[in-house]
Amino acid sequence: MSDPLYRKEILRLAADAHGAGRLPRPNLIGHAHNPTCGDKVTVDLTVDADGCVTAVAQEAKACVLTQASASILGARLKGARREDVERLANDVARMLVLKTAPPAPPFDPYACFDGAVAHRNRHRCVLLPIEAVLDAFEQAPNQAA
After folding, report:
1. 81-100: b or e for each residue (b if 16 or more CB lie within 10 Å)?
2. Which of 35, 87, 125, 132 is deepest in the core (most CB within 10 A)?
3. Cα 24–30–34 angle (5° rounding)?
């Protein structure tokens, strides 16, 4: 496929579906929904006492861009804290809107979404799984906002 919006790397991430499914006993659950296109993401997290993600699973009923973004999180989110995810959300948004560099490792695979820069209506698709993770952190008791 020659369309940069759906390059092989994105299709591969979506097909790999890292972290797809649900955790048996998550301590945090987050949701995000894009009413424009109907994409929905649910993220289950297990977070330790220090606020680090120890397990992640995601369920994305969504387009390939959202599925690929969720797959990146499924593969790379362990060890992250809320502030890491907030930074990731800002970095990905800047990459898409301002055409800045992609996020630093371990989230550098977001570079594959550079083809979405020209498609503003698809930016939310890339960001939706990150929004679901942030929603999960919102559910955490005693977490700083």
Report:
1. bbebbeebbebbbebbeeee
2. 132
3. 130
pLDDT tens by residue, 92-133: 999 999 999 999 999 999 999 999 999 999 999 999 999 999
Q: What are the contacts of 18-21 at 24+ separation with CB within 8 A?
A: 18/71, 18/72, 18/73, 18/74, 18/75, 19/56, 19/57, 19/58, 19/70, 19/71, 19/73, 19/74, 19/75, 19/77, 20/57, 20/58, 20/59, 20/60, 20/70, 20/71, 20/74, 21/57, 21/58, 21/59
Which domains are seen in the chain, by residue range?
4-138 (3.90.1010.10)
pTM over 0.85: yes
State both tokens at 130.
């990150």
38-78: per-residue pLDDT in tens? 999 999 999 999 999 999 999 999 999 999 999 999 999 99
